[in-house]
# Entry
Amino acid sequence: MKLILILLVFLAAWSSPPSAQTQSEEEMLIMASALTKVAAAAESAARYKEPPTGMSEQQFLEFSTSHDPSLLETFSGYKLRAQRKDRRAVILVCSADGAIRLLEDAGCTAALDRHHWRGRNSPCEFSINLTEICP
# Structure
């Protein structure tokens, strides 16, 4: 009986779909630290560098980190998104396939704002309202 129960638990764990929880905590915390730097660079670019209107998210990320392109290296293998509103910026890190959001940070705050990877799997969409979180 115990063997059957152990086998059932093993099969259930083995057959469950992959999730953001498969990311190691150490990897996520390292990425969170790096994200605060990218978000600060994006905030600075949105606020002081007058980025051209109509830039894609990727173009804005490259524009924001043009002083130090190595800021984006930590995120190779992940989808990185950027959103601007009223000279403010927020950066979102998602799984490589763009299906699951993992981390999110507004550049106007000091600490990382959202550790989505610790919760349930959510789509790669922004959850931070910049007009509410940034003064």
